[in-house]
TrEMBL record, chain A:
GO annotation terms (biological process): cell division; G1/S transition of mitotic cell cycle; regulation of G2/M transition of mitotic cell cycle; regulation of gene expression; signal transduction
Protein kinase domain boundaries: 11-297
Principal cellular location given in the protein's record: cytoplasm
E.C. designation(s): 2.7.11.22
PANTHER family per the UniProt record, alphabetical: CELL DIVISION PROTEIN KINASE (PTHR24056), CYCLIN-DEPENDENT KINASE 4 (PTHR24056:SF129)
Reaction catalyzed: L-seryl-[protein] + ATP = O-phospho-L-seryl-[protein] + ADP + H(+); L-threonyl-[protein] + ATP = O-phospho-L-threonyl-[protein] + ADP + H(+)
Entry similarity comment: Belongs to the protein kinase superfamily. CMGC Ser/Thr protein kinase family. CDC2/CDKX subfamily.
InterPro entries in the cross-refs: CDK, Kinase-like_dom_sf, Prot_kinase_dom, Protein_kinase_ATP_BS, Ser/Thr_kinase_AS
Molecular functions (GO terms): ATP binding; cyclin binding; cyclin-dependent protein serine/threonine kinase activity
Binding site for ATP: K40
Protein name from the UniProt record: Cyclin-dependent kinase 4
Subcellular location(s) of the protein: Cytoplasm
Automatic annotation (TrEMBL), chain B:
Listed name of the protein: Cyclin N-terminal domain containing 2
Keyword Ribonucleoprotein included in the entry's annotation: no
UniProt keyword Protein biosynthesis, yes or no: no
Residue stretches making up the Cyclin C-terminal domain: 250-372
Its job: Essential for the control of the cell cycle at the G2/M (mitosis) transition.
InterPro entries the record matches: Cyclin, Cyclin-like_dom, Cyclin-like_sf, Cyclin_C-dom, Cyclin_N
Organism: Salarias fasciatus (Jewelled blenny)
Keywords noted in UniProt: Cyclin
Length: 308, 383
């Protein structure tokens, strides 16, 4: 499992880190720079027409994002395609390696958890990264604490974005265990979806930063939806998507409960923003850019201004 | 190597009769339903409830010219119309007024062209397009020693023909030539493999942009089976690794469609500008210009050549689009001079593929327009 450029091995594997849902990820050392990197390989079925266009497009899109050098997005340092057989090509993506994800960061935080200021900073960085991806027509689709990296300096870096599509195109048969906890209603209902999916997940993560445990821990799609409605209430009939098979009648008529029942430590502005992220109708859900302009982030600036 | 290239060129009409091509052409016909936009529709769209940033980034892209007359070479005549408008408003009030108008127009145009599905990020996307397009110019027009400008022109002309035959989209061609320009500088390729490299660049561009792809075996057939399928796929991996999968490009054709939509240009002006822009692909020296400069210059030259009678609406729209800074006056003039002289002699010897393409009815015969013959002298008059 080493990637060679010409005859020289450039990346020496050091350890296996996480058997991610999509295959093994290796920590490796770049023999040129001495830096640690994360190697993610995708084995792509190739026919006689070479690399499938979906793979070419997705990887090219990730490469394009690299030009912007966004601080809240993990660096993609190299990509290589090597032929394994007539039917298979291996595409290796070389990412910068960050030791810690948000899940371990939250676990390691001493009681009583993260300070409100720290949460605000993390959220701001997370939304900056998302706004950047969304304005470049990239959605993450699988945002969760495990793929939000936090460097030792406290810098948030989104990882694994855009991979969902690269994998799903060619590894549909792999038995993949994915968590439902951060999935928005439209995905659970198998309706059409777009960038608002990531905002829902961000809302779940926002709540989790205060709670230090997930907000909705469903065990199946139905169960997950039920748990969501227990908090945000059953949406009105006219908001229920028309292109889905699951009927609204399958759920008990629940009223929304105050979000502070579930996230007691959150302040008023934070609660407002959280509700705008956990809006059932994806079209009414707040966008990443608008979320960044929300009052929740404004009072921090005014505080700093008055201090100085 | 070029013997095979030329022989395949000669064979094109013959090949077109084969069943494989019928099949591919049949499959590709729906691709002909290109993104069409009407240049007269009213914008009439309400911006989503979002505060549009009118900060430094706007100032960077949208340069306002106090003296409209110095704005852009070749547009001087139109700015005489704009002057009363400028006098009526103070510059700062115009600046306050126009960016939001321009933002709305750009968003509408992007939407119409199918480049965005969601208006929320339209202006940011446009600013990003303008910001990033500058990187797609090359510092110089130098090529590896064994590869001259003339050789390049022959190869590009051949790629244009294959592209046309496949009914691919316009963007695919611009991407293919960009990948070729990059590959020639990043990958070592022998003279015998140049044609293969050209084909792989077109194939990769199609993989990125097109929904229907030709078979590799067919591509080999088009090259007279000079190369095997394995050689083609090996070259594909070589290019992908050499470019590190960096296939991004900001096609000048995007900018042209966008500018023309905002400027409410007639179909004739757009067709002429597209012809001039495509001619720039054949000119090795044009790689040193950015996509926006090339698109802006093509549009200015097309307007100058066609001299369409002005209308108040058209003049106002042109005034608005000119608030986007395409490039320096000297650069635009340089490009217009190159394109004018190329267009004037495009059919003198053997007409190039672009000339033939734009002499058809569908393209309004623009390449045969008499105005092109002395476009250079028209440019001189404008100084």
């Amino acid at each position: 499992m080493a990637m060679a450029h010409g005859t020289r091995v450039q990346y020496e594997p050091v350890a296996e880190i996480g058997g991610g849902a999509y295959g093994t990820v290796y920590k490796a050392r770049d023999t040129e720079s001495g830096q640690f990197v994360a190697l993610k390989s995708v084995r792509v079925q190739t026919d006689q027409n070479g690399l499938p266009s979906s793979t070419v497009r997705e990887v090219a899109l990730l490469r394009r994002l690299e030009q912007f050098d966004h601080p809240n997005v993990v660096r993609l340092m190299d990509v290589c395609a090597t032929q394994r057989s007539d039917q298979e090509t291996k595409v290796t993506l070389v990412f910068e390696h960050v030791d810690q994800d948000l899940k371990t960061y939250l676990e390691r935080a001493p009681a009583p958890g993260l300070s409100p200021g720290r949460i605000k900073d993390l959220m701001k960085q997370l939304l900056c990264g998302l706004a950047f991806l969304h304005s470049n027509r990239v959605m993450h689709r699988d945002l969760k604490p495990e793929n939000i990296l936090v460097t030792s300096q406290g810098q948030v870096k989104l990882a694994d974005f855009g991979l969902a599509r690269i994998y799903s195109c060619h590894m549909a048969l792999t038995p993949v265990v994915v968590t439902l906890w951060y999935r928005p209603p439209e995905v659970l209902l198998q309706s059409s979806y777009a960038t608002p999916v990531d905002i829902w997940s961000t809302g779940c993560i926002f709540a989790e930063m205060f709670r230090r445990k997930p907000l909705f821990c469903g065990e199946s799609e139905m169960d997950q939806l039920g748990k969501i409605f227990e908090v945000v209430g059953l949406p009105p009939e006219e908001e229920w998507p028309t292109d889905v098979t699951l009927s609204r009648k399958n759920f008990p008529p629940l009223m929304a409960r105050p979000i502070t029942d579930f996230v007691p430590e959150i302040n008023e502005q934070g609660a407002q923003l959280l509700l705008k992220m956990l809006t059932f109708d994806p079209l009414k859900r707040i966008s990443a850019l608008n979320a960044l302009e929300h009052l929740y982030f404004h009072d921090e600036e005014t505080l700093i201004e008055t201090k100085s | 190597m070029f013997s095979s290239l030329f022989s395949s060129e000669e064979r094109l009409p013959l090949i077109l009769k084969t069943t494989t091509v019928d099949y591919i052409l049949g499959l590709c016909t729906f691709l002909l339903l290109r993104r069409v936009f009407s240049s007269t529709d009213e914008p009439g769209v309400v911006l989503q409830g979002r505060r549009l940033s009118t900060q430094s980034s706007d100032a960077m892209t949208v340069a306002f010219h106090e003296d409209g007359g110095t704005c852009i070479a070749g547009t001087t005549i139109f700015f005489s119309f704009c002057k009363p408008l400028n006098v009526g408003f103070h510059l700062h009030s115009l600046q306050a007024l126009v960016p939001s108008l321009l933002q709305r127009e750009i968003a509408t145009a992007l939407e119409k062209l199918g480049l965005i599905s969601d208006r929320t990020y339209a202006w940011e996307m446009f600013l990003e397009m303008v910001r990033s397009q500058a990187q797609y110019r090359f510092p110089n027009a130098d090529l590896p020693l064994h590869f001259t400008d003339a050789t390049r022109a022959i190869l590009v002309n051949w790629i244009i023909q294959v592209h046309e035959m496949m009914n691919f989209q316009e963007d695919t061609l611009y991407l293919a030539i960009h990948l070729l320009n990059l590959s020639l500088r990043l990958i070592k390729v022998t003279t015998t493999n140049l044609q293969l490299l050209g084909m792989v660049c077109l194939f990769l561009a199609a993989k990125k942009e097109e929904s229907l792809l030709p078979e590799v075996s067919f591509l080999c057939y088009l090259m007279d089976n000079t190369y095997t399928k394995q050689q083609l796929l090996r070259m594909e991996r070589k290019v992908l690794c050499g470019l590190k999968f960096n296939l991004s490009h900001c096609a000048p054709s995007h900018f042209l469609s966008l500018l023309a939509a905002v400027a409410r240009c007639s179909a004739m002006v757009l067709s002429m500008a597209r012809y001039l822009l495509e001619l720039s692909l054949l000119e090795g020296q044009c790689v040193t210009f950015s996509p926006l400069e090339l698109a802006g210059a093509s549009l200015c030259l097309a307007r100058l050549v066609l001299q369409e009678p002005s209308t108040p609406e058209g003049d106002a729209a042109w005034c608005l689009v000119s608030s986007i800074h395409f490039g320096s006056e000297a650069t635009l003039r340089k490009i217009m001079n190159i394109l004018a002289s190329v267009a004037a002699k495009a059919d003198i010897q053997e007409p190039n593929a672009t000339f033939v393409k734009f002499s058809s009815l569908a393209t309004m015969h623009v390449s045969r327009h008499p105005g092109l013959i002395d476009a250079s002298s028209l440019l001189l008059e404008c100084t």
